[in-house]
Amino acid sequence: MPVSVAAAPGLAGTAGTARAAAPAAAPGKATAQATHGPAASPSASAPSQQGTPADQVLALINQARTQAGLPALTFSAGLDDSASAHNLKMASGCGLSHQCPGEPAIGARETAAGVDWTAAGENIGEAGPESDTTAAIARAAVGLTQDMLNEKPPDDGHRRNILSSSFHHIGIAVHEDSSGIVWMTQDFSN
User: Fold this and answer.
1) Residues 113, 76 contacting (CB under 8 angstroms)
2) Which residues, in sequence order, are CB contacts of 159 under 8 Å at separation 6+?
3) pLDDT of residue 148
4) Which residues does 156 contact at the CB level (< 8 Å), separation at least 6?
5) Which of 1, 15, 121, 160 is buried deepest, with most CB atoms within 10 A?
6) Are strands 182-189 and 120-127 parallel, antiparallel or unpaired?
7) In sequence order, which residues have a C-beta less than 8 Å from that of residue 35 and are 6 or more positions away?
């Protein structure tokens, strides 16, 4: 399952691409599902098997941050809007890219979504095809995030974004397209 990371020019984070082994895939389906933003307040405890796929990703991220002695990231509606719009662009034909043709760079996207930032970053990934169930979509999104956390230097830009002390806010978008591919964007800011 491919994953990629970027940071706004001159800011915290790094750019690069990492590839993780693809999990076993279920056959495609005819419907699409999008989830974003947490349904409830995040917890720094073990990742929940309940809630939206984005809830489960946020729980895993905040668990890793807690273990690293960092404060939990808080949800930002503006970052969620930025991540959701980018996720849909990737799924609609752009593919796995931090900047689709005609799309502003991450910093400009976050600013346009109302985010006031001096440090910005983004992790993206895709997995699947997966079955059209919340559980399967969540497993794919959590699996992508765990792959990011398992990265080793020097190819660990995703992990560094997740564990950056510069970032305090996050928006998470998870979208399954009509082919069963699960797209995920994590946008970060200070």
Assistant:
1) no
2) 148, 149, 150, 151
3) 96
4) none
5) 121
6) antiparallel
7) 52, 53, 54, 134, 137, 173, 174, 175
- DSSP class of 72: P
| pLDDT less than 70: residues of the chain | 1-49
Render pLDDT for 59-81 as a digit per residue (tens, 0 to 9). 999 999 999 999 999 999 999 99
At residue 99's C-alpha, the angle toward residues 143 and 116, to 5°, is: 90
Closest CA to 55 of 70, 71, 35, 85: 35
Name beta bridge partners: 121.
7, 188
Residues facing residue 4 across a β-bridge:
17, 124
Q: At 63, which helix (H) or strand (E)?
A: helix 53-67
Q: pTM for the full model?
A: 0.79
Q: How far is it, in rounded angstroms, from Cα 146 to Cα 2?
A: 13
C-alpha triplet 170, 171, 173: angle, nearest 5° = 145
73-82 burial: b if 16+ Cβ within 10 Å, else e: bebbebbbbb
- Maximum Cα–Cα distance for the chain, whole Å? 43
Angle between helices 134-149 and 53-67 (to 10 degrees): 30
Q: Which pLDDT tens digit goes with each residue over 13-37?
A: 323 222 222 221 222 222 223 445 5
